[in-house]
Amino acid sequence: MSNEATLAPRIVVGVDGSAPSKQALRWAVGQAKLTGAAVEAVFAWEYPTPWLGMVPPTDKESGDFEVHARRILDRAVDEALGPGPERAVALRPTSVHGQPAAVLLDVAAGAQLLVVGNRGRGGFREALLGSVGMHCVQHAPCPVVVIRGSGGGT
């Protein structure tokens, strides 16, 4: 029996603090309730653009970015699902340094599903999928669910 067969199924969801990502998280939790899966809420972060081509950040500055990323993720999870540890499914929030599409694809290896929100802003653009979502749809190692935003909300 392989290790994958003994692990509980996982649903990976990209969370960036936006309303569509919070909707995706809520949907992933609902699906996890139905399937008995755990949910991995993943926030991918990168250094701000000014660091590119310049002196890399110090260890302290690097830690500051990581702490800030984790705060954004924790706040988004609480806003989407309500505060508190008594949630209906196993939830593993994770912040990872790296390009968002690459991070999500890496974490989704072996997952049951990868869930992303769309970033459409209304009108024709609402029908479009953002670059991260499109990359995930085209390259994911598992099925991908794209949650369309309702146009407003959290």
Question: Can you describe this structure in just a few lines?
Answer:
With 154 residues, this protein is an alpha/beta fold. It contains 5 helices and 5 strands; from the N terminus they run αβαβαβαβαβ.
Total number of domains: 2
Mean pLDDT: 82
Major sheet: order of its strands? 3-2-1-4-5
What class, by secondary structure content?
A: alpha/beta
Summarize the helix and strand pattern as letters.
HEHEHEHEHE
Task: Indicate the radius of gyration in whole angstroms.
Answer: 16 Å
Q: Largest beta sheet, briefly?
A: 5 strands, parallel
The outline comes out as globular
* DSSP strand count: 5
What is the tally of helical segments? Answer: 5
Helix content: 25-40%
Terminal-residue CA separation: 43 Å
Strand content: 15-25%
Q: Would you identify the regions where 5 or more consecutive residues have pLDDT less than 50?
A: 122-127
Textual characterization of the structure:
The longest helix is centred in the middle third of the chain and has 23 residues, at 59-81. α2 links the parallel β1 (10-14) and β2 (38-45). Helices cover 40% and strands 19% of the residues. The chain has helices at 3-6, 19-35, 59-81, 100-107, 131-139; strands spanning 10-14, 38-45, 91-97, 113-117, 144-147. The protein is of the alpha/beta class and 154 residues long. The protein has a five-stranded parallel beta sheet with strand order 3-2-1-4-5, with helices on both faces. Residues 122-127 have low confidence and may be disordered. It has two domains: 32-47 and 58-98, no CATH class; 99-154, HUPs (Rossmann fold), CATH 3.40.50.620. α2 (19-35) packs across α3 and α4 (100-107) runs parallel beside α5.
